[in-house]
Amino acid sequence: MLLSPALYGVTVDYQDDGPLLVQKRADIAHSAAVLSEKCNLLKYERHSGKFQSTELGRIASHHYVTYNSMSTYNQHLQPTMSILELIRVFALSNEFKLIPVRRDETIELGKLLEKVPIPVEESVEEPADKINVPLQAYISQLKLDGFALVADMIFVQKSAGRILRAIFEIGLKRGWLIPIRAALDLCIMVDKQLRASNTPLRQFRCVPADVIRKAEGKQFVRTWYRYFGLAP
Fold first, then answer.
1. How far is CA 142 from CA 14, 115, 226, in A?
2. pTM of the entire structure?
């Protein structure tokens, strides 16, 4: 701040503040506290300067989620949300705002829209709508051709775990059972790279493809107790 005052907005008004720039640092802390209070991340007493953390603030701190994203979740999360609706809220995260929609990847994104298991009603012309596709592509283990799209998928995948856990904890604190289950299912999908309809046997590379195909048949979907009746 002393070496590059213009970079930190240290104007001539702070010239008499001394070498430690106490007032400037206090102003920065005040601005950050006001923004955090606006997003319900803490309670700020302006007269005394005391901070009191909230549950949302603790969740954001624990999972390294930005205040913009927490404000978005606080605004859009509802007591009854399906996995599709939860993915839409996930795609609005501030962490993905710099991911662009490139012209050369439009065709590939269009093909992926036909392969992803959860239907995407929106187009992929907006960055927030595009995030849905690489997330599902990673879960479904779909092959991507474009290098830039692969990089976007890796970035989304790396951020998905902590963001979805943050959304899960928000729902947990509010007692919303439906979004809790949806967030937990998504966390497992991202962690294990398996869709909800996939058999857990897919985690074992040595299992033959025909065995997996039969295990995912109608008679065994979501009925694990049937496996106890199988012969060796």
1. 55, 8, 29
2. 0.80
